[in-house]
């Protein structure tokens, strides 16, 4: 399955810097508000050490990681939601993303222009109000669209009108719709509108190099706001990440050691995003390729097979499954089978994190 993350934030919060760090690209890093005028998009490989652990025991032609699409739009200034043209186009870029990453400025930098003092609580409130107002426009148009059918007594249209009207009232108060306990039918109705405020959000505190532990008052303000919103957060230094990603491996390892960093933040970001969306990884392994696949927690064997090819879900017969840890312990698939650790699973099997699976399907 494809996973897409949209990066949002106020101007000069460090969004494009993070985009560059995570994608090893050279998107425009503006130092003045409104300098960035294009959305940036890239496909990022998901770091996963388990791929090389599998490869250490199974010879293959190629190793293919899972991927995540990352979309970075220009900063949303006050009043952006009421704008026309480019602003609406930029917001459109993230409407179909699975998750939203809100970058919050927690750093000082004389060369990155800001007219007011750095203020994470105010910035988050301002940004979320803009997103709510953008969704309000979408919901208002949706209410107008279903009103005519609702007047004829159409039950589905009446239900949608009720849900959209409730959403409109909440958005007028600046409420993020993801914080509301909608039932399944209500969520299905709202899903068709691709509302930004219904999407899971991860708060990213972009800190100074002297606050890599995220212990400053500013970073902790992001943590507190995320907790109040029932969301998760993480902290990182975008400038440092950009420097590290451009280094040769040996130099990077030396610098990371000096800063006490165990890994680049891309791995932490993607792990947090997977947790946010309830995703997990399974693997296939053979002579042609070793590959990581993304599925949802709770998906069964047939659904996992269908991620590889849609016909495989219907034709699923069974799966032969073991774990990456089993492969480390026994050294080969043959040894796993000899030890009785190779499991044969039917259609009802719920996939586990780190499963390595061979699927038998009727074609």
- Average predicted confidence as pLDDT: 90
Report the major sheet: 6 strands, mixed
Q: SSE order, as H and E?
A: EHEHEEHEHHHEHEHHHEEHHEHHEE
| SSE class | alpha/beta
Low-confidence sequence ranges: 27-36
Helical content stands at: 40-55%
- Net shape: flat
User: Reading side by side through the largest sheet, how are the strands ordered?
Assistant: 2-4-1-5-6-7
Can you describe what's shown?
- The chain has 363 residues and is of the alpha/beta class.
- Helices cover 43% and strands 20% of the residues.
- It contains 14 helices and twelve strands.
- The protein has helices spanning 15-23, 49-55, 86-95, 120-151, 155-172, 184-191, 217-228, 238-245, 249-259, 265-277, 301-308, 310-315, 324-330, 333-338, and strands at residues 4-8, 40-45, 62-64, 67-72, 99-106, 201-207, 232-236, 279-285, 289-296, 316-323, 343-345, 355-361.
- It has a six-stranded mixed sheet with strand order 2-4-1-5-6-7, sandwiched between helices. A three-stranded mixed sheet has the order 3-9-8, sandwiched between helices.
- Strand 6 (201-207), helix 7 and strand 7 form a beta-alpha-beta unit.
- The radius of gyration is 23 Å and the shape is flat.
């Amino acid at each position: 399955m494809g996973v897409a993350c949209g990066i949002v934030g106020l101007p000069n919060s460090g969004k494009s810097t993070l985009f560059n760090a995570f994608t090893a690209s050279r998107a425009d890093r503006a130092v003045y508000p409104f300098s960035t005028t294009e959305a940036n998009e890239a496909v990022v490989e998901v770091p996963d050490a388990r791929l090389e652990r599998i490869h250490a025991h199974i010879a293959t032609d190629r190793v293919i990681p899972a991927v995540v699409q990352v979309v970075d739009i220009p900063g949303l200034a006050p009043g952006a939601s009421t704008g026309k043209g480019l602003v609406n186009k930029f917001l459109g870029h993230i409407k179909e993303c699975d998750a939203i990453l809100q970058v919050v400025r927690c750093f000082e930098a004389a060369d990155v222009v800001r007219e007011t003092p750095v203020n994470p609580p105010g910035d988050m409130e301002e940004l979320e109000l803009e997103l709510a107002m953008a969704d309000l426009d979408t919901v208002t148009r949706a209410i107008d669209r279903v009103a005519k059918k609702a007047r004829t007594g159409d039950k589905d249209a009446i239900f949608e009108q009720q849900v959209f009207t409730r959403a409109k009232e909440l958005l007028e108060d600046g409420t993020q719709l993801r914080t509301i306990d909608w039932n399944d039918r209500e969520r299905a109705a709202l899903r068709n509108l691709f509302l930004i405020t219904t999407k899971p959000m991860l708060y990213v505190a972009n800190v100074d190099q002297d606050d890599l532990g995220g212990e400053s008052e500013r970073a902790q303000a992001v943590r507190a706001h995320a907790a109040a919103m029932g969301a998760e957060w993480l902290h990182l230094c975008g400038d440092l990440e950009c420097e590290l990603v451009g280094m040769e491996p040996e130099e990077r390892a030396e610098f990371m050691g000096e800063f006490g960093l165990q890994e680049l933040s891309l791995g932490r970001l993607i792990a947090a995003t997977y947790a946010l969306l309830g995703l997990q990884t399974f693997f296939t392994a053979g002579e042609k390729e070793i590959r990581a696949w993304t599925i949802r927690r709770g998906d069964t064997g047939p659904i996992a097979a269908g991620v590889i090819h849609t016909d495989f879900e219907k034709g699923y017969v069974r799966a032969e499954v073991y774990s990456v840890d089993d492969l480390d312990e026994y050294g080969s698939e043959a040894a796993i089978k000899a030890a009785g650790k190779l499991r044969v699973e039917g259609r009802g099997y719920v996939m586990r994190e780190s499963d390595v699976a061979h699927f038998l399907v009727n074609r």
